[in-house]
Amino acid sequence: MNSKPYLSALIPVYNEEDNLEALGAEVSAALGALGKPYEVILVDDGSRDRSWELIQGLARKYPSFKGVRLGRNAGQTAAMFAGIQHAQGELIVSLDADMQNDARDVPKLLAKLDEGYDVVSGWRKDRHDRFLDRKLPSMIANALIAKVTGVNLHDYGCTLKLYKAQYLKPLRLYGEMHRFVPAFAGFLGARIAEVPVNHRARTAGVSKYGITRTFKVLLDLMTVKFMDTYLGKPIYLFGGGGVGMGVLGVLMGAYTLYKKFYLGVFVKDQPLFQLSIFCLLIGFQMVLLGLLAEILVRIYYDLKDVRPYFVRETAGF
Fold it and tell me: Per the CATH hierarchy, to which homologous superfamily does domain 7-229 belong?
């Protein structure tokens, strides 16, 4: 297709040679039925099998298919980021390459987006995965992410999601943060909806997910919370903690002096005195760290020409 695509489909691929032929046929049929220009970007995340060879074959077979090959296995987040940077569509939909997402659900997401939403997330309501090592950790992670970010979704781990491109292009994704993209869009003011989608059991290939992934998600969640609440004013976090430690040190020091002058307990016999000095020093260092963070944030915004706001739309220009 020569015209600029209306929809870009991003599919990270890692060792999925057994699924790619069927995936190409399904995605081509589902998106071709939309009647609008589209592109499919398959990002090979350093596969060690024949995945890249098959992606090249799909690009020759289907004119709307494109391939991006990463130099090494950098993870799903990096693959998503690379796909976003290469996408040209007004809308961007992400899918898994393992055939567990159903490309025929894309029209359902598009219909929901037309109701006035900016992001539509798939919800694997009837999920066909093992409970103990897949469903249970996912349920815990979803509840925790929703609580911390304030963006309430049942299924952050579902790759099938539809976005307006303007909410993805400004993002810089690292670690395991692809699952937090709806939360990042929510921080920008995006209107987010969720719709139940079909989920199928894997029939070919090997799953790349394990229970250890949950711990990585928890660590990244701390970063996400900091970026949402304190990135613009880190002094509130570090300075607040420093003042709290300082106040605690003063209270313990005052109590130590009270015991010395009124109860006759020598300072050397009171470990609280050493602890109060420790708290005061830590508090002072945290305040200084907060001030340094404030300076670094301003340098970051100035050098990279990053704005601390997001423009949804304009009128009259």
Answer: Spore Coat Polysaccharide Biosynthesis Protein SpsA; Chain A (3.90.550.10)
